[in-house]
Amino acid sequence: MLDLKPRTRVMTKEQIEKIHHDALIILSQTGVKVDDPLARQVFENAMGKSAHASVVHIPEDLVQRAVDTAPSSIPIFDRMGRPCFVLKGDKNQDAVFGIGVTNLHYHDPFTDKIQPFLRRHMGLAAGLGHTLKNFDFISTPGVIQDLPPETADTLGVLEMLAHTTKPLVMLISNQNCFATALDLCEHLTRDLSDHPFVIPYVNPITPLVLNADTTQKMDLSIQKGLPLIFSNYGMSGATCPITPGGTLALLTAELLAGLVYSQLVKPGAPIILGSLPAAFDMKHAGSFYSPRTLVLNLACAEMMAFYKIPHCGTSGCGNGWGADLLAATTLCINHLTSCSGAAGMVPFVGGSFDSLVFSPELVVYSDDLICQSRQFAAGVSIADDHIGFSDIETLGPGGNFLLSHLTGRHFRESQFSSTIWPFLSLDKWRNKGAPTAAGILHDKTCDLLAHLAIPEDHDDIMAKGEAFLASGCEF
């Protein structure tokens, strides 16, 4: 191979097999609490024995059967039915990025005020993700605060549908709205199993609880033929063992439990697995991403590659008080290692204050960072036609390569310019009034929000969606 591609790997084959073995011990000996009686029945039918105190002990052969039947490749489309990307359960997956997720507040760049997340913010956030080319999909960016809970989720989905054609990762907080949200998507587009663009996101309750809301959402998603994300959130020292190894083993066991359930409901059901491993601050009782938890994110991705199951990891967002240096540090580590590692989906970009506040500026910053991370991960070539022997010989000692044949052929691809910040010498910077990097990011964000690229069918989608929901959601 004559391409130099930086790759981040954190586990050996023996280490992967150990974590797999440890997860099997947890599943078979400790077991998983399954809240919903119908979901427990699914496990009991497969194992030929009843659960004790709602706890299901999952044997190794059931795990292996699920690993063997789950698809290793899942194509994802946009709302118009066009191919977007393929999620692969191997180490050659290119990371794909999305904005989100379920923030309760919105950091308005025009006023610099933090306010409750409103319905109009849903459209702005989805439109921003649609406009920025380095984002591949949109995750539900907030929980709408100016609508009643019984309508907030469905109207939020409508705002997303109208403001982007990109694939949607759908998080529904109100269980009663889940079926209606899927019906809305189907009514406005087509049969969701045909060229799926909606990916429901569900999560268990760590540690080791398959709650009823989660299994019921899984049932309906599988029935609709949709790929779904089964992801867990663990805080080392609080909901998981304080050691990174213990956290990885426990979270892997939970993911395997979700995998088993999905394949018992329907063999071959498409599922994406992953973890959001976080640290827990014992002093301030809050969660955060640390360098060690970002290692666990990569380790989880490698575990999923071992199972040949598509992966969904962490965005690295949550640290920071907006688009600041504190947030940037974690984002840089996360995005760079996701692109050079085995990570698959990287959702939930844009949250700050422990993912309570959606920051458009952070989304715009991340778009630039994703671009640079992808260019880094793409690497360089050392093939003969990239060495330029003839140019070197012709120009000889003391020459320059500004007008050489090789420069003429490759100078465009060798140039990198930020999507946000211009290249300024000291003199040019002074002549422009000594602008700050934060100020330029702020102005860029406001300009983007003021000139969003909205889909042409925005008004039609909004009108049809409002009518559908007002009619009681009858096809």
Topology:
Elements: E1 3-4, H1 13-30, E2 32-34, H2 37-47, E3 55-56, H3 60-69, E4 73-77, E5 83-88, E6 96-99, E7 105-108, E8 113-116, H4 119-131, E9 137-139, H5 149-163, E10 168-170, H6 178-188, E11 198-202, E12 209-210, H7 212-223, E13 228-236, H8 244-265, E14 271-281, E15 286-288, H9 291-307, H10 325-340, E16 345-349, E17 351-352, E18 357-358, H11 360-378, E19 380-381, H12 384-387, H13 389-395, H14 405-414, H15 426-431, H16 437-450, H17 458-470
Low-confidence stretches: none
Our count of domains comes out at 2
* CATH top level label of the largest domain: Alpha Beta
Shape category: globular
Percent range for helical residues?
A: 40-55%
Please, what is the CATH homologous superfamily of the largest domain? Answer: Trimethylamine methyltransferase-like
Strand order of the largest sheet: 15-14-13-11-10-9-6-16
Question: What fraction of the residues are assigned to beta strands by DSSP?
Answer: 15-25%
Structural class: alpha/beta
CATH architecture descriptor of the largest domain: Alpha-Beta Barrel
Instruction: Briefly note the CATH topology name of the largest domain.
Output: TIM Barrel
Radius of gyration: 24 Å
N- and C-termini, Cα separation: 55 Å
Question: Largest beta sheet, briefly?
Answer: 8 strands, mixed
Contiguous helical run count? 17
Number of E strands:
19
